[in-house]
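lol ok so funny story. i was supposed to be doing the assay writeup but got distracted and ended up predicting the structure for this chain instead. priorities right. anyway since i did it might as well share w the group, maybe its usefull for someone
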Amino acid sequence: MSGGTIGIMLVSIFFVLLILRTPISFSLSIATIITLIISGFAPEMFADIMESAVTSTTLLAIPFFIIAGNIMDKSGISKRIVSFAELLIGDIPGGLGIISVIITVFWGAISGSGPATVVALGPVLIPLMVNAGYDVAFAAAIVAAGSGIAIIIPPSITFIVYGVVVDGVSVGKLFAAGIFPGVLMGFCFCVYVFLYSMKHGYRGRKRGTLKEIWKAFLGCFWGIVSPVIILGGIYGGIFTPTEAAAVAAVYSLIIGIFAYKELKIKELPKIMADSGSSTAMILLITAGAGVMSWLITTRGVAAIVTEILLGISSSPMVIMVMIFIVLLVAGFFLDGISIVYLFCPLLIPTVQTLGYDTTWFGVIMVMAISIGMITPPVACNLYPAAQLANVPLHAISKQIIGLVICGIIATILVLFIPNIALVLPNAMGL
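and the output, tada:
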């Protein structure tokens, strides 16, 4: 059976299962098992490949970062940071909205997960904006969009998975490459929120006095320095990204219990159970997608895709723009980890043939995925935001359009100016 036939069969079965509302983790596994059997492979190979897909030590970072984010959420750090930022920015148009974007970006440097950031910050930020006169759907859209940057700003769970899937790519370099693009996307969101708020008259509270600002800063200091410790340790060569995740979890536990004294020992079992549930979901998708990735690679599907793409245009940039559009559309239907496992084996050979840096491409892919997190029907950030705000999905979807356009603009800038992503890791010798 040819690689093209296998590719068509695999993708067709997968999307039929999605249309039938089968969970993505099961859709990946079922589609792959059926294709393996039809292709003549022994069914027991599925279990062997699935096991190898989740045994990378790099993946150990995922549960630790999830635990760190959950502990930080229970420690009351989000309320302290919001208070500090609100006093600092003051009553500029869209001040609270801008604060919300900044804080979701910051929180992404703790959790590495978009939906987790929505759940952690939505209950705090959305009511604050609504009480200040913001449209509730717009407030929810801001939180959903800002939380998407959590997978671009390090430490990012999606970058960790990309580093596992693509050979020769350093997770530390990916983390460094994501900083400026993540800040750029956050800046674009802030500009949009500012302009939208000027039109609708949304303003914040009066700027605090120096004494009030200093007091608020001291109140959130231990939470603010956590990303500095995590990233500083990685780039200072003190520990690896995987070890940094464990440090983040322990540090969060210490400040939650001893510094802020809001985390209770009796809450730890539930935190661990929730973290375990989130990790299991991610690794189940990883296992199924890993088998699909292996099948795509070994049966020559990637080579066929490369040949097709190179035959469309002689311009490398035109091909890269087309790839970006494909990733955007994929984000409508798939979660980020599935996109990485499904499309990396298909697209990385083309990217390498064109001579592009795979770290830079990883940033482009993850930025496209972050946009997909706020574009229905999958939109894993929109659903919890809409639920927290108690608004229908169509209302928040209407408000998210401007922010989606801003995200696309930011990604296109990185696409045409690769140094936005690469200047920092190159300067650091990564």
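The chain has a mean pLDDT of 83. The chain has one domain: 3-427.
back to the writeup now i swear
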